[in-house]
Each structure stands twice: as C-alpha cells, then as structure tokens.
Amino acid sequence: MRPAKGSLELVCPAGTPAALDAAVAAGADTVYCGFNDETNARNFPGLNFSRVELGESIARAHARGCNVLVAINTFPRAGNVGLWHSAIADAEAAGADAVILADIGLLAHAREKHPDLRLHLSVQAAAANPDAIQFYVKQFDVERVVLPRVVTVEEIAAIHREIACETEVFVFGGLCVMAEGRCLLSSYATGKSPNMHGACSPAGAISYTEEGPNFVSRLGDFTINRVKKGEPAAYPTLCKGRFMIDGKASHVFEDPASLDASQLLPGLKAAGVKALKIEGRQRSRAYADAVVKAFRAAVDSLDRGLEIRAGALAALTEGGATTGGAYRKTWR
Q1: DSSP state of 99
Q2: Helix, strand, coil shares of the chain as percentages rounded to 5?
Q3: Residues 20 and 168 in one domain
Q4: Is 0.85 topped by the overall pTM?
Q5: What is the mean pLDDT of the segment spanning 312-325?
Q6: Is 200 annotated as a binding residue?
Q7: Is 12 annotated for ligand binding?
Q8: Is the residue at 241 inside a domain?
C-alpha cells in the first residue's frame, strides 16, 4: 500500500472509471471499486468495472500514487462459488492493492491460493468487537477491518487496544438501520438478497408512477413513498420509505440523513483509526469530486491544527440533513 498524504488515509468510492479518475484527481489516497457482477454489494446496472476497465484504471491510479481496493464482499451461493474465486484471482492479476472480503470461505480461499494478496475485512462481516476481529486476523492474516456503523468513538478506541490490525471507518454517506450484512428488508420485498446478489433494492424491482397529483415509488409490491409532483423523491428503499401509521405518513425505520463525521476526525484519529471511508459507489463523478475534495481539505486542516469546516457537503446529503450516526449514540 502506498502511504497516505496525511495522517489519515482517505478511502473513496468509485462506481465507474470516470468516478475513479475524479476521486484520484480530487486527492484520494485510496479508491475502492468492484466488478460488474454479483461479487460486490453495489451490483447495479451500468455500475462497476469490467476486467479490462479495472486493469486500466489501477494503472492510472498507481501512476498518481493512489491505491485501489477491490470489493468482493457478497456471500457466494452454494454451488456457484467459482464466480467469487475468479474475482479474487482477477483482482490480483489486475494489480489491486487489496481485496475487501466478508465471507469466511472466501477469506480462507484467498489466504491459501493468493498468499501475497493483502486482505481487508468488509463491513459486511459485521465484526464489531476485538474477539471477532482477532479471529479474522489470526485465521486469515487480515490487515485491516472496516468497522460497522454501530460503534462509538470510545468503543473504537477500546477495540484498538486489543487488536493487531488497522481499522477503517465510515465518515460520510448513506446509513443503514441494520448491522451491515444482516438486513433482510430488500430480500423480503424483492426475493433478491443484497448480501448474495449484491443489490439492495435492485432496479428491476422498482417502479415509478404518476397517480393524480402524486408521484409514487414502489419496491416490488410495496409503496415506498408518495410525494407531490415536483417534490424531491429519494431512491426507494424500504428502510427509508414513508408509511402510514395512525393516519399519518412518516419515516418509520429511518429518517433520510447522511452520516457526516468530519467534525469527529480528531477523536477518530486519537482512537487509532487508520483510514476514513466515504460511502457512495452508486453516486456520480461530481459527487466523488466534491466529497473527496471536502475530506481532503478536512484531513489537511486536521494535520495543520486548523479548524475543520463544518457543513461543507450539505448540498450532497440525503434529505438535506446530516447525523453523527452511531459515533454519538446514547442507545445500545
């Protein structure tokens, strides 16, 4: 892995080669991406990389001193593991700096068949305590774990006192109400598993209709939202839908808001965090450019002892709102 430009490594999303180039140009230390198949958790039409695109993109990123990680973080289905094994081999052949895995069988396969390949543990593995993390470190030589978005800054510091690997934490983007890797809402509605087919709320299950003065979005047979024509309407997922309770429509599971931990960077650094992850491989090249520049400036300000600008990304948040998420939770 090439060294980070600052004290914290900035790990940025890329859903296309153009987004990868934008993230690199904006100051990313590392970019993560996936193949255009079921082996990664953002398997949407028109998104992700072919084998040729990945190899060419890695070469361009490396030429500018940027690392590239390949997410192979879905769970193979019985009798069809070959697709996932090929993805690991192809990522290594393309020059990936590490693969991001969640499945224990894939981790064992990668360690045995690709001994020189660096392994990161995906957030999809939901390893949120020292014992779980150390299991992956000891069994598979995992060198970094992406922590689930359910731990506080104090808990991250406690984890670091007992583990022998790097940690990477989310600092911006969409949130899930479930511990990663354990959500079945989309599976229930569509019959497709985000954890095995790679797409939460797959596009093929979504419909939009105009009904009188309203614009209605549905996922499978479920009405997710009903807004007046012209009002903003988010991508329809069950967890962020509006449902009628006692005659009132409200966000029952989760209000639309984006995680923004930019003001928590000093605490995360002090807790021992190595890398900062930005969510959003399904977002645009413009999103990658804006978010990476903002967090590049935040890390640089932190290293210079300057104040980190607050609210710099308000225009790119879900619902126009931000949250500190579980980093500041008062609940268990």
Answers
A1: E
A2: 35, 20, 40
A3: yes
A4: yes
A5: 79
A6: yes
A7: no
A8: yes
